[in-house]
Amino acid sequence: MNFMTRRSIRKYKDMPVEKEKIDEILKAALLAPTGRNSRPCEFVVVDEKNLIKEIAGLREHGSTFVKDVPLLIGVMGEIGKSTTLLADCSIAAFAMQVKAHELGLGTCWVHVNERTAPDGRTSEEFFRNLVGAPDKFTVMCLIAVGYPDEEKPAYTEKDVNWDKVSYNKYGNR
Question: I need a labelling partner for 94 at 20 to 30 A (CA). Which of 9, 51, 85, 87 fits?
Answer without folding.
Answer: 51
